[in-house]
Hints:
five-stranded antiparallel beta sheet, single chain
Amino acid sequence: LMSGVKNNVGRGINVALVNGKTGEPLDTKYFDMWGGDVAPFIEFLKSIQDGTIVLMGTYDDGATKLNEEARKLIAELGSTSITNLGFRDNWVFCGGKGIKTKSPFEQHIKNNKDTNKYEGWPEVVEMEGCIPQKQD
Length: 136
């Protein structure tokens, strides 16, 4: 869905939307949460249709410009870690618009100079699993 080869990833929060019934890719975007503005991200989150699978991952810094409204909208997609996401944390998440529970698809590693695996950066996060199709 997203890669450097496709030239559709960037600094901040990278997002891919997938149709929850068909698995068809719908959209990919990234939002710079260091030097950018959170307003376009909030509008994008509000525009997501019910039944859409939402995949997110941070690159570099995904938290500096996040405000309470953006965090609340992501929490409504099923995230539990978004409230604690901080500067240069590594985070991947898969949730859904209209989800009634918390998503089991989420990994978060805090940026901590005492425990970072790489100089100035926490360990890489990886996640895999099967996401159920939305039923009518």
